[in-house]
Amino acid sequence: MESTNVRSQSMPHEIIERTYGISSPLCDYILKHQIAEARPRQIIDFGAGAGKIGKIAREILGENVKLVAIEGHKKTADMLTKEKLYDEVHQIFIQDWISSTNKEVFDLAIFGDVLEHLEPKEIRRVIDQCIRFFKEIIVICPLYDIFQDDSYRNPVEVHQTYITSTFFDRYNPVEKHIIRGEEWIIMNVCILSTYEQKPLYRRLSWFAFHKCMLILQPIGLARPFVNFLKRFFIKYKWLLRD
């Protein structure tokens, strides 16, 4: 692993962003909190671009995390290799790395402003595969933005998918943040993989309770039903907790 002194000699990040891509900072404070709370041992930064996420992770975790960059654009991957911010840089498209290269289980996958560059079916396939070998997945993406063409002389910068606020709901995200700025609306969602999900009986019990509440609340019976659970079920709390 490279020393901090070597990393500190890198090109100023502002110059890198102007050359290789700028992403909105609207959700940066949320990502910082998520990384600090999870304290992952490994982070795979998909579509690493100018390396902003790697920089954030280093500021929070220092050398106590293994950073791996997956970058499809050769020029950008070469820059990331020279910068030595990441422990590993792989010049490969996300879909190819996930489907044919990876054989390990990792702590955290971060997709920062990258999935909108894939088509909807590709996004679904990527997430479906990731939930099998990542404990936690964080997706940061612009909403309702399909206007961007190729930028920074990078043909993969074209936006292919019109992402809405419910696009990732099928994966039952444990966090969803939508931040509105002057130019963009940015969404951050955190998804727990099947590796980390609660047992099936816990998920089914909560689902059943939730559906009961939707039926009973309009007719004024939600609270009586909960009182019934409290009186007759010693372990009722685990039935109610998502």
Assembly form of the protein:
single chain
Domain count: 2
The counted number of beta strands is 7
- State the CATH topology of the largest domain: Rossmann fold
The CATH class of the largest domain, by name, is Alpha Beta
CATH superfamily of the largest domain: Vaccinia Virus protein VP39
Structural class: alpha/beta
Instruction: Please outline the major beta sheet.
Output: 7 strands, mixed
- As a percent range, the share of strand residues is 15-25%
Portion of residues in helices? 25-40%
Q: What is the global morphology?
A: elongated
Gap between N and C termini: 40 Å
- How many helices does DSSP assign? 10
Rounded to an integer in angstroms, the radius of gyration calculated over CA atoms is: 21 Å
**Biggest sheet: strand arrangement:** 3-2-1-4-5-7-6
What is the N-to-C succession of helices and strands?
A: HHHEHEHEHEHEEEHHH
Mean pLDDT: 82
List keywords for this structure.
single chain, 242 residues, alpha/beta, 7-stranded mixed β-sheet, 7 strands, 39% helix, 19% strand, disordered N terminus
